[in-house]
Amino acid sequence: MTPVVQLDAVSREFAGTAAVRELDLIVRRGEFTALLGPSGCGKTTTLRMIAGFLEPTAGRILLEGEDATRLPPERRNIGMVFQSYALFPHMTVEKNVAFGLKMRGIADSELRTRTGEALELVGLSHLAGRKPKQLSGGQQQRIALARAIAVRPSVLLLDEPLSNLDARLRIQMRQELARIQKETGLTAILVTHDQEEALELADSMVILDQGTVAQQGAPREVFRAPANRFVAEFLGYENFVELPDGRTVTIRPEHVEVLTPESTDSTPSDGTTVDAVLTAVRFRGTDCVVTAVSQGRTVLATSSDFELRSGRQVRVHLPAAHTIDLPRTKQELPTS
Ligand SMILES: Nc1ncnc2c1ncn2[C@@H]1O[C@H](COP(=O)(O)OP(=O)(O)OP(=O)(O)O)[C@@H](O)[C@H]1O
């Protein structure tokens, strides 16, 4: 099946500095792809190139299999929703939603049907006659979404669409987006720096690091097996431990076992066990989080042993089944 969006080695420079470098990306029909990464990694630049607002300095962009690298935005069948809702303040909700259809020369009766459908999809048909300023932030974002969907774009580009909403509304809108995408079979690319949003919504996530792909895959895969330290840190992994055999691994604190003579006197046979001293114990109610230091290496662990105190000598066990090997990134490799 021809991908809806395909980027072949796309690069974009600004005054000699690369914002996106040789990026390859494939988005298939009906797929929800999340582009994520820290500020400045090139997410918005990538989205703007797909929309046609920015030209790549190198590489090709294919839309529905056709070379669209130099195609102006209005000739790409793309819908966009931004962080700022960008609704026309003087137009009613209905006129806002109909705007893109009108621009495309859609006949009146068809225009009314599609506007009505789009408003129904976002659950706001009853507000059709209002002006944007008479709506809440969440409602305005729904209207922006309806406007983008009404034109039946081959791909919907979402640039941090939920980040202006408060936490509760953001979660509600996330579920709403998931529902709409499921109902309509929309192909969408979402730019976000919120990993939770990506984990919940995306079929595929692409983590960018300085304009290149650090890792791409299904959220579960990426979360379970981050490819390197950058991805692991971005996903919230906190333990980075160099093992005696030279490997660097990461492990979730809840998988690290803190052993004391009272808990066991045998050394587990799998994984790695090291002597350590506790330097901090934080009580959290149902468990505590301890910081253990072993030969300069720090490991965070959770434990339900409430007798543990700072200064205590323990052994720390990293079970093999839960340690994730992290190959070193280029920056971390010693230079020869
Ligand atoms: N018009 C521009 N002129 C010069 N540099 C730019 C321009 N647009 C983006 N950049 C630079 O390109 C890099 C990538 O920017 P981009 O906006 O794509 O990042 P981002 O991942 O979307 O970041 P954020 O999460 O902060 O929005 C940054 O270093 C940025 O400063």
From TrEMBL:
Tell me the GO molecular function terms. ATP binding
Which Gene3D superfamilies does the record match to this protein?
P-loop containing nucleotide triphosphate hydrolases
Alphabetic keyword roster: ATP-binding, Nucleotide-binding, Transport
Q: Where is the ABC transporter domain?
A: 5-235
Q: Provide the leader sequence positions.
A: none
| Highest taxon above the source species | Bacteria
Q: Name one Pfam family in it.
A: ABC_tran
Which PROSITE patterns does the entry mention?
Answer: ABC_TRANSPORTER_1, ABC_TRANSPORTER_2
UniProt-listed PANTHER family: SPERMIDINE/PUTRESCINE IMPORT ATP-BINDING PROTEIN POTA, SPERMIDINE_PUTRESCINE IMPORT ATP-BINDING PROTEIN POTA
- Protein name per its UniProtKB record: ABC transporter ATP-binding protein
